[in-house]
Fold NAD(P)-binding protein.
Amino acid sequence: MPSLAAIRAFNLSKIPSAYVPVGVFVGGTSGIGQGMAEAFARMTKGRATIIIVGRNQTAAESIIAALPQAAESKYEFVQCDATLMRNVETASKAILAKHDKVNFLIMSPGFFSTKGFDPSEEGIDRKLATHYYARWKFIDALLPALTKAKAAGEDAKVLSVLGTGNGGAIDTNDLGLKQSYSLGNAASAGITYNDLMMEEYAERNPELTFAQASPGVVATNLANSAQSTTLRLLAPAMNLTAKLFGTTPADCAEYMWHGIFNNTTGAFRIGSQGEEIGKKNYYGNAEQRKALWEHTAAEVRTSS
């Protein structure tokens, strides 16, 4: 692998000069998403449109206030609780109302919970909604803007940060995990679903780039995605462990951008330093991919 300094230089060389890029960062109010938004602003020297999508407006405003400023800078926040598909639809419409082109769609929303199956009022487990269904729906909704960017000769790339390479076998008879839910099943299924999602989107949109990444251990603040008082109390100890053994969000962001910039069209799986991992620890097949697509389209479009 190249050094981090070489990766930073490579990333800078990939920043477009012919147009002002538009980046949408779902889950960009903390952790890896925040790191990637800040890195994007830093690499472009503020010559970018950055749309931070998340739940915490106060956090977003604090992040935006610290970003570098340029004449072309446009920084925005769009409110969205991604556990509900109707919120994803509303947020997507808000983005499309102001931006007909999107160059980079970065998705890293988290949901830290130890509950069992926890359906929202739409009937979808909240953890799976955040880690998979909402991401599928954001891509589906923003495809016209991504496609228009590509048609204009610009970058058009999608990245979902979750944990590729750490998934597991899936059951096409229970894709919503309503019969076989456990925290382990939800975690591994969500990762495999993301792999299959990216492959199917790439097959249907071969001119675009779709990738899932495994960031490894990153020193993020788990309290931001904790769904109970108990977990928020446990978060500092877990954060300390991540800080001691993990990558900083800023360095992780550089690795993730390297993975995005280093790939052309198609579907890719990216490791913790932005490297391609191919089919390492891959689960699923074409038949399961099609079944998952049909299930998701029905579930998401019905829910919203």
